[in-house]
Amino acid sequence: MPRRLSDRVEDFAAWLFIVTALLLVVVAAGVGGSVHRDGLARSAADSAQRKQVPAEVLADDRAVTARFRTVSARWAGPDGVPITGRIALERAAPAGRAGAPARAASTAPGRQVMIWVDDRGHPGPPPATAAQAVQAGVVAAVTLVLLGLVALGGGWLGVRAVVARSNGRHWEREWARVGPRWSGRVH
Q1: Is 114 exposed, middle or buried (0-12, 13-18, 19+ CB in 10 A)?
Q2: Are 55 and 122 members of one domain?
Q3: CB neighbours (10 Å) of residue 140?
Q4: What are the pLDDT digits (tens) for 112-134?
Q5: 68 shares a domain with 20
Q6: What contacts 127, CB < 8 A, 6 or more positions away?
Q7: Least confident of 32-36, 59-63, 76-80, 98-102
Q8: Which residue windows are transmembrane per the record (predicted)?
């Protein structure tokens, strides 16, 4: 049974941090689940609002980024009227790269490509997937746990520093009282 107040404070703080860490895990699971549900709802909404349509490449604009190439293309709008605009196509994977999806390297005029369009016919990204919703939920939960543990760890180090200073002052007072008798040097 701890006798000093500092020992009792340290024990109380340790239990408080343990309970807080357990609550942190529960809250993080709830937040991760909420992010996952929101992602699934967004995926369902995206899937309802976006569809794939064929587009015909009209000209290669030669605007290239690390992952995409911009081309002019024509596709059918929601009312069947042709729409002409610029679309981004993923560049072809380097030859022999393991696990790379097959992509045609040609962006020659007349080539047919599949693009995602919204309900107004504007090109955009494909709908979010259930796997992306799971990933977002896991990332949110893990991030929350890690940030919480860093904060709790900092708090614990702070408690330990305060308790150590208190113990040091207490031990100095005790040694000032008892030390001269043990050493034989009485002042």
Answers
A1: exposed
A2: yes
A3: 19
A4: 999 999 989 999 889 999 999 99
A5: no
A6: 43, 46, 47, 49, 50, 116
A7: 98-102
A8: 12-32, 133-159
